[in-house]
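One-letter codes give the sequence; the fold follows as tokens. An example follows:
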Amino acid sequence: MICVRAAVADHFDGLCGLVSTELGRNPTSGEVFVFLNRPRSHIKLLHWENGGFVLYYKRLEKERFLYPKQWMDAYL
């Protein structure tokens, strides 16, 4: 799982572009790519699954997503 800060408005093509250009990874590799907006109120998970992309999206109304400790050091 890889965590990236991204604009929440990005959809499949924009997120795939981030995976390719910013991370140097293949978006169709089967890995799960995690995208958070700056205030950490929105999260998207991008995953390639047998012939197509799956995009999970969740928006919190009051709380914020927390970063796992290993991401705090590596990605922020």
In short: Residues 12-21 form the longest helix (10 residues). The helical segments are 12-21, 69-75. Residues 19 and 76 are 16 Å apart (CA to CA).
